[in-house]
Amino acid sequence: MQPIGCRGDALTDKHVKSSGSSDADLRPAAYADGRGLAASLRSLDSRTSPRTWDGRLASLASNLGSPPVLASVAVALIALKLSSARAWMWGSVYLLLGVMMPFLYVVWLVKRGNVTDIDVRLRKQRFQPLLVTITCTGLAWLVLALGVAPTTMIVVAGALWFQAVAVFAITLRWKISVHAATAAGATTMAWVLLGTPLPLVLIVPLVAWSRVRLRRHTLPQTVAGAVLGFVIFSAAATLMPSG
Fold first, then answer.
1. Among 59, 64, 143, which Cα is nearest to 101's?
2. Which residues contact 174 (CB under 8 A, 6 or more apart)?
3. Cα dist. 180→62, 102, 151 in Å?
4. Are 226 and 183 spatial neighbours (Cβ–Cβ below 8 Å)?
């Protein structure tokens, strides 16, 4: 990600200035192992984090609407819809390879001080986690395809891989909201499976609002993420078996 003060993190820059911290104090180059940067951001959070009811709601919505949570819910929903032991087995395989492995890798990076936090808020710090996500989701997709998993799961696994690749390509130049992209993708899939757009209409705006409210993203970044997720999974839905 860009250092705080660059265009991709302009919103965070405003918060730094309002809190009295200088840009130089929070630049990644100032910390060889990333721990000092993480500590500074935690300190900044302690001064700027919302303490009102809407701030707490935003924090809850952001946590429940995180990519690992929503991806897991989407896979579980497919298994429930298919209602077979085979679907649950392949769903578990995907969750292990495509969701848990990238998530644990980010946790490991946080503990090592290589990234600021679980959200990986700095754009340039997202490159490595995204490459691992692309690798893991691609491996999961390949395993499901070779193992003759249910077609719906194979299609969704492929869509998640394409989304990871698209997010990485965009992140090379601009910080897009992965939360919003995953929320839109998961709820679009729920619309296809359940026959109602209600999850899309309710969840995506809530997650997008939470990211803006918590000052993790700007409104355009969340809108772009939502559009990306909706487009990819709408296209994927055309490849899914009917009925």
1. 143
2. 8, 123, 221
3. 10, 18, 25
4. yes
φ/ψ bin of 224: left (φ > 0), alpha (ψ from -120 to 50), beta (otherwise): alpha
> pTM of this prediction?
0.82
Separation of alpha carbons 189 and 233, rounded Å: 7
Q: Rounded CA gap, 162 and 94, in Å?
A: 15
Q: Between 178-194 and 219-237, two packed helices, what is the crossing angle to 10 degrees?
A: 30
Residues of the chain with pLDDT under 70: 1-50, 243
CA distances from 126 to 44, 134, 174, 234 (A): 20, 12, 11, 26
**In whole angstroms, what is the distance from residue 49 CA to residue 55 CA?**
8
Determine the Cα–Cα distance for residues 142 and 140; give it in Å rounded to an integer.
5
Q: Using CA atoms, how far apart are residues 204 and 63, in angstroms rounded to an integer? A: 13
List, for residues 34-75, the tens digit of each pLDDT value: 555 555 555 545 444 567 888 899 999 999 999 999 999 999
Which residues pair with residue 4 across a beta bridge?
6
Let me know: does 105 contact 129? Beta carbons within 8 Å.
yes
What does the DSSP assignment read for 101-139?
Answer: HHHHHHHHHHHHTSSSSTT--SGGGGHHHHHHHHHHHHH
Locate tokens 């990211």: which residue?
Answer: 211
Count the Cβ atoms, other than its own, within 10 Å of residue 167: 23
